[in-house]
User: Fold this.
Amino acid sequence: MTSDQPFLTPRFENIPSALKELPWAVWIAEPRKGKPGKFDKAPRCPIKGCKIGANKPELFGTFDQAHAAHSQGRYTGVGILLIGNGIVGIDIDDVRKVFAEQPQVRSWVRSALQRGAYCETSPSDTGLRLFVHGAPLPETVKRKHGGLEIYDNLRFLTVTGHIIGKR
Assistant:
């Protein structure tokens, strides 16, 4: 990562096959209005380049299509659409702060890594993203809490391939 490029470049070779099988999109970092230093990462169709929503899985592409589109240099990164197939995504923003304020989260991440979770650095290099196999989340589960987010269906999550820990 360079000072003029604040986001990690995806390492496609490190992305596990289970994630490669999901629907894929590309994204462009777009500054958030009124929130300096924050960026939106809305998914875009890797074939047409138009913005797409997580509620339209048919507009997403394949891993190879997203990789090819990103390779053209017009996009900041790539990501997947969770589709309720047993893959759960956990997003930890500002991981240093979360670990300092909630040491139990650090312990949980260590335990998840020991059990084979795929863990990578977020595009900003300030957070973590974990992907685990799990049962569908109950509708009553709170999806966001204290710098943590958890999703299993119809949610776009960025993917970097910058692996953390051992798999």
Remarks:
- The chain has one domain: 12-159.
- Residues 26 and 78 are 4 Å apart (CA to CA).
